Amino acid sequence: MNRFTGRTVLVTGAGSGLGRAIALAFAAEGASVVAAGRTAASLNETVGLIEAADGTAAAVTADVTDSSRLQSLVRGSVDRFGGLDIAVNNAGILRGTGPVGEVSEEDWDAVLRTNVTGVWLAMKHEIAHMRENGGGAIVNISSNLGAHLRIPNLAAYITSKAAVSALTRAAALDHIHQGIRINAVSPGAADGPMSLRPGETDADRAERVKTENPLGRVAEAGEVAAAVLYLASPAAGAVVGTDLVIDSGSSA
C-alpha cells in the first residue's frame, strides 16, 4: 500500500526500537519521514535503512525537552519536504525504578520532563503548523502502564504515561475543530530490549511471557507500528481521542 505518498511524517525517538519501526513503516508506504532524536548516529542508521529500501527520509537531532529546538524541528521538516501532515510523538525514557518513597527527585523530574512535557511541547509546535495549514494527524505513544495497568516500582514512568493518555484526549477535544486528529497508542511489552529483564535472553523472555499475558507472547514492533499508521490514515477519519492498547491482553 501507499497510503502516505506525498505526506510528510515526523517521528520523535526514531533512532531505535519502536520509533525506528514506525519510521520504516511510514516510509514503506510512501511518506517522506523526518527521523528525530538525540543521537545522530542511530538516526542516520534509521535513515540509511529507509533509503536502502528506496524510501525518503532525513535525520534531525532534537531534544524534546527543548521548546526552541522542537520549533526548529517542525520548521525544518516543512522546509525540507514542503509540509507536516503527520507527527508521531514517541520519544520517552524509563528511569527512577523502585518504590515511590525511594525515587530520587532527579529521576522523577527527568521522566516527567521528557515523557509528559516533551509530548506537550512537541504537540504545541506541531499543532501551531497544522492549524494554519489544513490540519493533520498526531499520534502519541503512551503505554499500557499508566491509565490501563499498574505494577510496583515504576511510579514515575506509570504516572508520566497516564498523563500522556489524558493529555492526548484533552488535546483531541481542543483541536479537532481545526482539522487535527489526535490519538494515542499504548503498547505493552514489545519485541525489543526494553522488555527484557536484567540478564534475560530473547528465549528466556519468550518462555516467561507464555504465562504472563493472555496471548502468550510479546507484540512485534511492526504490529504496534501498524496501529500507528492506521490512526494516522484516512481510514481512521472518525477516530478522535482514542487510546489504542496493544499489550497482548495484559490489561484486558
UniProtKB/TrEMBL annotation:
Give start-end of the signal peptide. 1-27
The record ties this protein, via Pfam families, to: adh_short_C2 (PF13561)
Which CDD domains does the entry link to?
Answer: SDR_c
Q: Which UniProt keywords apply?
A: NAD, Oxidoreductase, Signal
**Taxonomic superkingdom:** Bacteria
Domain annotation Ketoreductase: ranges: 7-188
Named from the GO MF annotations, one term is: oxidoreductase activity
| Entry-linked InterPro entries | KR_dom, NAD(P)-bd_dom_sf, SDR_fam
Q: Which SMART domains match?
A: PKS_KR
Q: Does the keyword ATP-binding apply?
A: no
Task: Give the similarity note.
Answer: Belongs to the short-chain dehydrogenases/reductases (SDR) family.
Question: Which PANTHER family does the entry mention?
Answer: DEHYDROGENASES, SHORT CHAIN, ESTRADIOL 17-BETA-DEHYDROGENASE 8-RELATED
Q: Which named protein is this?
A: Short-chain dehydrogenase
Organism, as annotated: Streptomyces phaeoluteigriseus
